[in-house]
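Q: Is it fine to ask for two folds in a single conversation?
A: Yes, each is treated on its own. Send the first.
Q: Here.
A: Result:
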Amino acid sequence: MNSRHLLSGCKRVLAAKLQVPLNIPRRSLNLHEHYSLGLLDEEGVPVPRGSVADSPQKVRSIIEGYGLTDAVLKAQVLAGGRGKGHFSSGLKGGVKICYSIDE
């Protein structure tokens, strides 16, 4: 018996025991949040303002361009959720609320 047949058999047994359908949909399209928001915006769905930055200088110029004093920075992570993200400063969780432009 090869591994493919063994895996198929295990799936059938597990599906029967858990009483779930055998063909559970699989996530096969991964989009960063900013791409998803862009697509929604193009279709007229209201979305929060946002921009992509890859440096602290870019973050500062974006915040100043929006005329804001505070902002929320989000790491874009395709590893199964934002909670797995981290910033180079060591901050974990992938979300940072900044209450001043210097923060």
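Q: Second one now.
A: Result:
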Amino acid sequence: MPRVSKRSRLIQQLRRILSRRLENRSYRILFEDVDEPDFFANAMDVVTAVWLSNALKQRFIFRSNTYRRGNPELIFEEDLRDEKKEDDDDEPWLSEDEFLQKYRMSRKNFHRVLDLIKDHEIFQNESRVEQKPVAYQLMIWLKYVGTEGSGSSNANQRSTFKIGYGTASVYRQRVTIALRSLSGTYVRWPSEDERLSIARSILLEKYHFPHCVGIADGTLFPLAFEPETEDAPDYSGRKYGYSLSTMIICDHKRRITHYLAGYPGSAHDNRIFKATNLVKQPNNHFTDREYIIGDSAFENSRHMVSAFKKPKGESIPPSHEKFNEKLAKLRIISEHCIGILKGRFPWLRSIRMKIKEDKKYLRRILSMLDATIVLHNILIDFGEEEQDDWIDDDD
């Protein structure tokens, strides 16, 4: 037999009751004393009709008022708690390592990052409904960028934090805006004095490249979805299915000092590098003797020292090979920098955001990328420890 829901049984019962009451009502109208009508019975007839009407309109009658609600604030507070509760001996819900794995930084540095963004105007409003604490919104953002694949989705965030799909999206947008506002402070080309310090450090670390002020490398950020654009084939890169190509220049501390993103995966590293301000406005970024280094994909120039290419059909000269070996030891820094970036923010290994003809879709991805790079540099300045097990050699 087909299963009859509690709602259907209630509606059937109310219909039977209302039918009997209406039948009795007709008898009352015919035989009751006009001067003394039965007000109570008439009122109950109306109430029963209203109950039936409401039951027909509501899909979920017997669902608890707390269905799928709970108290989401407890989830955030328990994750943030780093001491035992005063009234019992319970340890914090998340250990330091568990907090690190979930939010991609230590609790200490989480609060330091929070202090940097909490007063941003995006978290202030004139509505009578106050925003949730900035800490909660930052946690939502960190869990999103700290998860790879389908884990970085509104559905996953709803399940993890017991919040609505739209709420998660709004929180991420706010934090992205707040972090990007710090870009001028944390992601910038070093001054002349700072470049001198970088060059000295590189030389003192016995890399044997005097006046070098940075290391350049290109990287691909895979896209989870095929772009819905006319130039979709251009996003098919040399390594992944569909991807975005980005040029990154870092210093000896793995701090990103310059980058250019938004090119399709098929774009060549040298093409992107030539589009940077470092090439377009060299006098604003280098003194006469300063330069950055890169692999053989880059074209040798006044401010770019690249590896020697192997001549076609010939072996590379020993002197060139020796030079390339020394250069490779320094270039490892840029590979490590990119590995740290993708390892800390696995969202970059499979970007689950679509690219469409409307440029706002690409801008949304690039805004998130901006925010992750800002946070990458912030955490380097804060001395956040690197997690070797987060780094994938394929990055």
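Q: Anything structural to flag on that second result?
A: Two points. The two ends are 57 Å apart (CA to CA). The longest strand covers residues 212-222.
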